[in-house]
Design a protein that fits this description.
With about 325 residues, the chain is of the alpha+beta class. The chain contains eight helices and 14 strands. It has two domains: about 90 residues, Alpha-Beta Plaits; about 160 residues, no CATH class. The N and C termini lie close together (about 10 Å).
Length: about 325
């Protein structure tokens, strides 16, 4: 069985972001945050704490894993360049980029560039050109899906119980609100992602003549070398419209089984976490994939593959590994 993230250095990712550094306004300081064994939110909190400012002064274009070496862009509102560069925090490095008048926004990434070492291989594998654009396991940790479904179905008591929140006199909404909009929306997004994955699995099982099944934490992925036409697939929400009849039929069948409708994503009790939905590519191309093999110094008699490639924002490098080596 292949191994990834055996060492922190085995998984490296670097964002590509376009910034306007020509503005005369300098409200925002842009820097690259290089981190090792930190998740993004904790790293930002640590920087804010050292500077004695609130974390909301900082914005990122994407969230990066903890168990990796990552380089990502950060904007800091009215924070001095020298203060940032003088910070000394273990396994964090700040690289000044410039100034601008706009904060970074989630999703502003153009692409992510990866270097991944896959270990414990018995043979060399063929390169792949694309991946089916599922959400991977990172999206589904802990009770994310259970909580997301409970919120969508207005089972607020169940959500409070799962989170071990205290409530008074049947008021389950206010304890949930103490968690903040961002976290509650993340739970809902996790549930939406699971529904999306199931739609893709069914769609591919119908369209592919030859495919393989690879298990993940909440089911299985279907992969194939037979590339089919890319389409936009909805991520279910209260404003979702279906342009593709087959996708519509698959979603409707799943909604019947889940006992939900599009309208369930309107959450009047906590309107700020209602979700109108989105869409996502069915498949994405892997750009500039390079793969070379060497002897694996950590596993005697085995090979390691050194992969370098780029993916669009929101797509999972771990799926490249699962499809290629799974």
């Amino acid at each position: 069985m292949y191994k990834i993230k055996h060492k922190i250095d085995d998984f490296c990712v670097e964002e590509s972001v376009k910034l306007d550094l020509t503005s005369k306004k300098k409200d925002y300081t842009y820097f690259i945050l290089e981190k090792r064994n930190w998740n993004t939110n904790d790293a930002i909190k640590a920087i804010a704490s050292r500077l004695k400012v609130k974390p909301n002064r900082f914005n990122v274009a994407g969230i990066k894993d903890r168990k990796a070496i990552t380089r990502q862009y950060v904007s800091a509102y009215r924070i001095n360049k020298n203060e940032l560069e003088n910070l000394k925090i273990k396994d964090l490095k700040i690289i000044f980029v410039g100034y601008g008048e706009e904060r970074l926004k989630l999703g502003q990434i153009e692409c992510n560039n990866f270097k991944i070492i896959v270990r414990n291989l018995d043979k060399k594998y063929d390169k792949i050109k694309f991946i089916e654009n599922y959400f991977d396991d990172q999206r589904f940790g802990g009770k994310n899906i259970i909580l997301g479904k409970a919120l969508v179905k207005k089972e607020f008591r169940k959500a409070c119980y799962s989170l071990r929140l205290r409530w008074k006199e049947g008021d389950y909404v206010n304890p949930l609100r103490t968690l903040g909009k961002k976290l509650l929306r993340f739970y809902i997004n996790s549930y939406q992602s699971l529904l999306f994955n199931e739609v893709l699995r069914i769609y591919f099982s119908r369209r592919y003549k030859d495919f393989k099944n690879v298990e993940y934490s909440h089911g299985e992925f279907i992969f194939s070398s037979d590339k089919i036409k890319n389409i936009k697939v909805p991520i279910l929400g209260f404003l979702t419209e279906f342009d593709n009849e087959e996708i519509k039929e698959i979603y409707e069948d799943i909604m019947r089984k889940e006992e939900i409708s599009k309208e369930n994503f309107i959450i009047r009790q906590i309107p700020e976490i209602s979700s109108e939905g989105n869409e996502r590519d069915l498949i994405v191309d892997i750009k500039d994939l390079d793969c070379r093999y060497e002897n694996d110094e950590l596993n005697k008699g085995k090979l390691k593959a050194i992969l370098e490639f780029s993916l669009p924002k929101g797509s999972y490098a771990t799926l490249v590994v699962k499809k290629m080596f799974g």
